[in-house]
C-alpha cells in the first residue's frame, strides 16, 4: 500500500460492510516521493506504529472516530498499554479503495465514486499547518492575504499561525497536487468538505496539545479519512514523524531531517528528482520516476543510527513512556545537529 508499511487483508471490505486487516510497519523510509530508499532505519517501524497507536487511542478518547482496532501481539489485538514490547503491527478496519483510472495526468474520479458507494477511502490528504517555515510550498503557491494574514508578502523568517491553515491535496495521483476547495469538494464524493476540514482541525488540536505537553512543537501534518455510511473516520496513520513535522528546541524532529540531509549530501540526485517531476508535468506523464537519471546512494551506518535514535527518543518523549532503549531526546537532537 505504501513504500514504508505493508498491508495485510483478513476480510475484504464490501459496499455494505467494513473489512478487517492490518498495517505491518517496516524500517524502510522514503523521501521526495521516491519510494523505498536503498537502506533501512533500525526500529523506525516500531516507533511509527507505537506513535500511531498512541494517537489513535488518544483520538478515540476524545470522541474522534477512527479505523484503528489495536496493536497486534502474538496474533491477538490489544491496546498499546497491554503490549509487552513496542509493536510493529496495527489492526485496522478496512474500507473500499476503488481503481482510479487515468490517462496521463487526467484522473477519472467519477469512475472511482461510482464504484465506491457508501464505503470508501476518500482520495484526498487533508493538510493542516500551524507554522509556515522558510521554503514551504505554501509560500510559492499563495500570498499571506489568501489566509487572512496581515503581511504584504511572506516574511523572511518562519511564520507561526494563530489559526491553522487547512489545505487539500490529491492522494492517489502520481504526483501530489494541491487543490482548490471546489476541486477537493468534487474529489471527496459524498463526504462534505466542511466536515473534513473540521475533523482535520480537531485532530490537529489534539496532536498539538499532546506535543506541547511533551515539550515538542507541532508544525504541520495531515490526515486521511474514510467515509462509511455517512460517517467520517480517520484512517491511515496519524501524528507520527513521517506524517507530521515536529521540532524540539528549534531542531526538526521528523522525516524532514532526512530530506535536508539528502539535499546537503546528495544534491545531484535531488536536482534530478525535481527535474524529472517538472519534465513529467510538462509532458503530462504520470510516471515521473522513469524520467529520473540518478539513483539515491545508501546512508552511512552512523547516519542510520542517528536517525534511529531520533525516531525512538522522539516516540518516548511524545508518548511519555520509556518504550525504547534510546538516549534522551536532547542527546538524540544533538547528534542530528552534528550531521
UniProtKB/TrEMBL annotation:
<keyword id="KW-0547">Nucleotide-binding</keyword>
<keyword id="KW-0658">Purine biosynthesis</keyword>
<dbReference type="GO" id="GO:0006189">
    <property type="term" value="P:'de novo' IMP biosynthetic process"/>
</dbReference>
<keyword id="KW-0436">Ligase</keyword>
<protein>
    <recommendedName>
        <fullName>Phosphoribosylaminoimidazole-succinocarboxamide synthase</fullName>
        <ecNumber>6.3.2.6</ecNumber>
    </recommendedName>
</protein>
<dbReference type="InterPro" id="IPR028923">
    <property type="entry name" value="SAICAR_synt/ADE2_N"/>
</dbReference>
<comment type="pathway">
    <text>Purine metabolism; IMP biosynthesis via de novo pathway; 5-amino-1-(5-phospho-D-ribosyl)imidazole-4-carboxamide from 5-amino-1-(5-phospho-D-ribosyl)imidazole-4-carboxylate: step 1/2.</text>
</comment>
<dbReference type="GO" id="GO:0005524">
    <property type="term" value="F:ATP binding"/>
</dbReference>
<dbReference type="GO" id="GO:0005737">
    <property type="term" value="C:cytoplasm"/>
</dbReference>
<dbReference type="Pfam" id="PF01259">
    <property type="entry name" value="SAICAR_synt"/>
</dbReference>
<comment type="similarity">
    <text>Belongs to the SAICAR synthetase family.</text>
</comment>
<dbReference type="GO" id="GO:0004639">
    <property type="term" value="F:phosphoribosylaminoimidazolesuccinocarboxamide synthase activity"/>
</dbReference>
<keyword id="KW-0067">ATP-binding</keyword>
<feature type="domain" description="SAICAR synthetase/ADE2 N-terminal">
    <location>
        <begin position="21"/>
        <end position="273"/>
    </location>
</feature>
Amino acid at each position: 500500500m505504501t513504500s514504508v508499511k505493508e498491508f495485510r487483508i483478513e476480510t475484504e471490505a464490501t459496499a455494505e460492510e467494513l473489512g478487517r486487516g492490518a498495517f505491518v510497519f517496516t524500517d524502510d523510509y522514503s523521501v521526495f516521493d521516491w519510494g523505498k530508499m536503498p537502506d533501512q532505519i533500525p526500529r523506525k517501524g516500531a516507533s511509527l506504529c507505537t506513535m500511531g497507536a498512541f494517537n489513535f487511542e488518544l483520538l478515540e478518547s476524545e470522541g474522534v472516530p477512527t479505523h484503528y482496532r489495536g496493536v497486534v501481539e502474538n496474533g491477538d489485538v490489544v491496546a498499546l498499554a497491554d503490549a509487552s514490547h513496542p509493536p510493529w503491527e496495527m489492526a485496522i478496519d478496512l474500507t473500499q479503495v476503488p481503481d482510479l483510472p487515468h490517462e496521463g495526468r487526467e484522473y477519472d474520479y467519477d469512475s472511482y465514486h461510482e464504484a465506491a458507494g457508501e464505503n470508501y477511502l476518500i482520495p484526498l490528504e487533508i493538510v493542516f499547518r500551524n507554522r509556515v517555515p522558510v521554503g514551504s510550498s505554501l509560500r510559492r503557491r499563495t500570498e499571506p492575504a489568501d489566509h487572512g494574514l496581515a503581511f504584504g508578502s511572506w516574511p523572511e523568517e518562519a511564520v507561526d499561525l494563530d489559526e491553522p491553515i487547512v489545505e487539500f491535496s490529491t492522494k492517489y495521483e502520481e504526483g501530489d497536487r494541491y487543490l482548490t476547495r471546489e476541486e477537493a469538494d468534487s474529489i471527496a464524493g459524498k463526504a462534505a468538505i466542511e466536515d473534513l476540514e473540521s475533523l482535520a482541525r480537531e485532530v490537529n488540536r489534539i496532536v498539538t496539545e499532546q506535543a506541547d505537553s511533551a515539550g515538542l512543537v507541532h508544525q504541520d501534518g495531515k490526515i486521511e479519512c474514510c467515509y462509511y455510511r455517512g460517517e467520517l473516520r480517520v484512517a491511515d496513520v496519524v501524528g507520527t514523524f513521517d506524517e507530521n513535522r515536529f521540532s524540539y528546541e528549534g531542531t526538526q524532529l521528523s522525516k524532514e531531517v532526512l530530506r535536508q540531509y539528502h539535499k546537503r549530501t546528495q544534491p545531484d540526485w535531488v536536482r534530478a528528482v525535481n527535474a524529472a517531476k517538472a519534465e513529467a508535468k510538462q509532458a503530462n506523464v504520470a510516471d515521473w520516476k522513469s524520467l529520473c537519471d540518478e539513483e539515491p546512494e545508501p546512508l552511512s551506518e552512523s547516519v542510520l543510527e542517528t536517525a534511529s535514535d531520533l525516531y525512538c527518543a522522539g516516540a518516548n518523549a511524545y508518548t511519555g513512556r520509556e518504550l525504547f532503549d534510546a538516549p534522551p531526546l536532547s542527546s538524540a537532537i544533538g547528534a542530528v545537529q552534528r550531521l
